[in-house]
Amino acid sequence: MSAERERLARVALAASTEPGDPRISGLVEELGAVPLHEHLSAEHDIGGVLSDVSARLKVADPERDLEQATRLGIRFVIPSDDEWPSGLDDLLMAPLLQERGLPPVGLWVKGPLRLDRLAASVAVVGSRSATSYGADAAADLAAVVARSGAPVVSGAAFGIDHAAHRGALASGGESVAVLACGVDRAYPAAHKNLLDHLAAEGAVVSEAPPGWSPTRVRFLARNRLIAALTRGTVVVEAAVRSGALNTANWASRLNRSLMAVPGPVTSAPSQGVHQLIRSGAATLVTSGAEVLEMIGSSGEHLVEEPRGAVRPRDRLSVRHQQVLDAVPVSAGARADSIARTAGLGLLEVRSTLTRLAGHGLVEHTEDGWRLAALARTH
Amino acid sequence: MSAERERLARVALAASTEPGDPRISGLVEELGAVPLHEHLSAEHDIGGVLSDVSARLKVADPERDLEQATRLGIRFVIPSDDEWPSGLDDLLMAPLLQERGLPPVGLWVKGPLRLDRLAASVAVVGSRSATSYGADAAADLAAVVARSGAPVVSGAAFGIDHAAHRGALASGGESVAVLACGVDRAYPAAHKNLLDHLAAEGAVVSEAPPGWSPTRVRFLARNRLIAALTRGTVVVEAAVRSGALNTANWASRLNRSLMAVPGPVTSAPSQGVHQLIRSGAATLVTSGAEVLEMIGSSGEHLVEEPRGAVRPRDRLSVRHQQVLDAVPVSAGARADSIARTAGLGLLEVRSTLTRLAGHGLVEHTEDGWRLAALARTH
Questions:
Q1: What is the pLDDT of residues B24-43, one digit of tens each?
Q2: Are B198 and B176 in contact (CB under 8 A)?
Q3: Could you tell me which of A124, A252, A326, B284 has the fewest CB atoms within 10 Å of its CB?
Q4: Measured between CA atoms, how close is A274 to chain B, in angstroms?
Q5: Predicted ipTM of the assembly
Q6: Which residues make beta-bridge pairs with B235?
């Protein structure tokens, strides 16, 4: 009963305030949602917020809102629920709270995925005007992350957001969209199918009540949620001033892993990413495996660094390497000259050259011995 | 007279030993070049090197070598010369000396550029199998560096080396090739014109005496010189095991600035570069200006970070921004709904909306007010 009162009070507060308003979240922390709602409903001004919320609070009907939402398959998750994602509580500790920084009053959710599963999730965010390179990189990376069992989280915009969901879903993994508008709305409209798919197989999440439009403030508030809900954020292509960099900034403040995928230096959408790496804010990542290593508990995911193929010379004895090292790369040299260069006896060098030729590492030309193509890497 | 004896002794030692042999360089530091040469010529074994050098020392003829070199426009620069590049002395301090680490006995040089000018130079190195992206990035960057007056230093290989020289020369700047073979030889042969051009306008430099072939050991020894001669090294495209990474490693050991240009994560030649950045060994750079900032004395070169264009909303009053922030991005909303969202009075919101429409930031549709394309960036 009291759980239901709590939920209704939070629905009413969510309906009467802008997402991320730090005054409301702060008062909820301080007084509790039910007393705050009662005070404001009785037109007691608390924390100076009454004038801003009273008009909306008067028309709020939380029972009806919840009922309508339930009919649409939408639930309202609050901190006392088992699935409440504990990552959001870190917003209480973030150093810069003034800018829409506190936890949401609750989250509207459509979809089977329980929000507490997001503790292991990875955000993949980036430019709406992504290049095909960026979109492919985001999709590949999201596919590897999702296949490992970690949900992928993003917005629902064109470009990187869309590519991340596409990659995660194609790999059979889970994907979650966090919106700036109500979870019953499709913005952009072209992504209605994608959002329906996510609601059917993963989740669509928003702090804004059903029916609400996206506004700039709601996008900014949404970005903090993406950072807080996930274990790490990967930025793939972000222009210098972009929402993705705002999310990145939140990830840093919240001590989440911040990762960034580089691109050509000639590509404008990679500029913001390169700044993040240059400044030391983000770690450069080139693959989903590297992302998993960053967010994994130590040893959980170990990436094998690309090492290059073992070369034929690696398998030679030191003596043979010494001879090989003295063989010219281009025009050939006679065995005695190679022996002098190597500081070894002529007989030994001759027999070694013959063996190296047998391995295809040196070749005899009319000018003498020289490296074969196989060994010509320095 | 004694300067000439010193030079001849060093020519003879250079002719009898492999480039970078740390035993010889160590003995030169310890005893001086003239006494060492005398001892070895008299077949006294010093430091256990006699057996390796005696055969070559017997046939060495430094007067003839110097004379022949002079006829070809080649000089032999030794530490007592004014133009001796002091950066090479840092090789004495490098932490890992065992691997061909000491300063050269002398440097063979062809070209008008004085080597002491290299104190301000920048090495641009990378893959021989560069992509056109990498080659263009190297050329652009080298052009900016050279135009600023700093010489560019590289090898003479295909790919990035060639692109770096091309960029530096095209900008009217100076460029220097450091070779693994004698400075009178063209390796690869296809770069004969390039090397002639560098010898005419910049310099071609080698530790290996004229006439000598390139070998793997000489390439490795050459790499340490590129790092030591320059103020910083920029790696553009380097496969995971490549000579460029060997040069990068030397630059780190010598406390030079190590910089790296990222590329697509799908590009094999960028893998080694991304590893350098990931490991923290190299700083990501995207332009010649950022390179100059890294190597410049503080404040000498200040890069203006790309900031993105100032947006129309940046010029609005706070009140107007508040209204703008409450206008939906997609489907329109009525003024009273916007007023509730913004927490402002209806009359004020109406007049503000009209003004914002005048600035082209919002538009009125049949559904109501919504953001115009100009303002639709979040």
A1: 888 998 899 999 999 999 98
A2: yes
A3: A252
A4: 7
A5: 0.78
A6: B125, B260
